[in-house]
Structure prediction request, 581 residues.
Amino acid sequence: MALRESPFANGFIAGLHSLSWWLIFPCFWFMDRMIAVCLTTTLEKKQRREEECYLGPLRVFFGLLIFLALFVLTAPVALIGFLMWVPLQATRRPFIYSQRTTTNPEEGAVKNLAEGREGFGFVTANLCLLPDSLARFNNLGHSQARANLIGKTIVQSVNRPQNCVVSPSSDTMSHCSRDNLLASSLYYGSIDSQPPSRPCLGFDSSLPLEEVVCESGGGEVGSNTNAANIIVGTEQNAGESDIAPDAAEVTKGNNFNQNSDRCKAGWKSQKLGDVPWEISPLFPANIDFVCLQEVFDKRAAQKLKDILSPTFSHVLYDVGIYAFHGCCSSFKFFNSGLFFASRYPVLDASFHCYPNGRGEDALAAKGLLSVKVQVGRNSQKNIVGYFNCTHLHAPEADGEIRNAQLTLVSKWISDFQALAKRDDEIVVFDILCGDFNFDNCSPYDSHEQKHKIFDDYRDPCRVGPGQEEPWVTGTLLEQPTMYDEEVLTPESLQRSLENEAVRRRFIAPPVGLDGGSCDYPEPGAPWVGRRIDYMLYREANLSQLCKTEIEEFTFITRLAGLTDHIPVGMRLCVSVNTEDL
Prediction:
């Protein structure tokens, strides 16, 4: 599919679409506020305990009355806009592509791969950026403010200047320059770019983990800041302030977060049971690709694009179809909610909508977004990778629908890669990620756990069907307790996930065969909880010259209080046999 920024073939149709949407929007917004004023999150309830008891009912009564009147007044205009909007969807492409082009006379990113090894970082997260009224059913509100803060949080975390030092209490004072992206080339990610080098000098891996600290520079708001308070406006000017991380704590596991240094040092291949892992209060500082789910709100998607695009210069957003379209028989009021951001150019992209949605899920155009990116080139061949992101059917009882969707995912990926494949290319990675809406520990999800897609793609967190690695944590938070002090900040959520007894209180439990909670796990095994956010990769489809290994796998607590999911990240080290290039 040819990638143009506008989803429409010409400016006239795009103008008609914009006009129709602005006729619809006032009525839509008043309806959204009318419902939202009646729904209160547990955080808002806590913050209003000091109010007089009669203020809450008055707020609801007069808010409902005012917004209902405005909704009725604007409904005739919205109906005209809706009648214009629906037929235009047949001409719309299923995404908007935004790119910021840069030029750099220096040698391109391929230089590092040509030297033999390079790492690529991937992150996936479900943000629940629905219209405010619908987000409140998930105990989340203020979607526009959350989108703004999430975007800034990702950018500040990724672009942070950070130095690892050994604590002064130690006899050794070695310094490790790590992930200093602000000092790196502004052109990182373009084809003609040089990814930032991350040299590590004198890091003493024999030191105890508690003696390793990280110093971060800049910013006025620390990572201990209560993000939920920023959203509801209890901190002045918080929306304009920068989010800067505090000391990044290194947690239990095999990972010292040395990232690209490990890859370029040529460390040995690992078994999947020995994956370097981390529970981190920060996003990794070397992310190359970001996949987000449930970015259904158009304004929230636009905010994220505006904030992320200076760092991730290639963005696909507003992904999906609307109205009656193609094989989807039900009317689509919402897009797929998928959002993709990349440092590297997008060569090709394709979206497929699942035809078997049911119930409330059928109102959204959930599907699969497949993307082909160019990460470099040499004198003979382009160096490319494939990235696939999806969001499967949600209701727990509909396992057969999810199973059928996984089969479609496998087919659509194969079809896309067969069409996009070129002889003059080296494929260095093939990723599948997203919110699968089933876990690998619930007996209720046993059918999906055995799907053949797990034979094609490797899941680093999985031992086999129904069995997780012992270091894995669930990624679905219990919505009623999202704003408890133990999980309200990145650091407190990190500590809670590290403690199995505390984790049981805040991570959704496995689902039994009867649809209720079940006794899990077996005696002596660690309690994981529902991990429904996946990051998979495969090697079978890569060029014969390439080998991959996992450099680190990360559970990220940075968005505590901003979403009901825990983002996951993975860094993949790619080795290329340069002698045969």
User: Anything to note?
Assistant: The CA atoms of residues 139 and 480 lie 7 Å apart. The longest strand covers residues 367-377. The chain is about 25% helix and 20% strand.
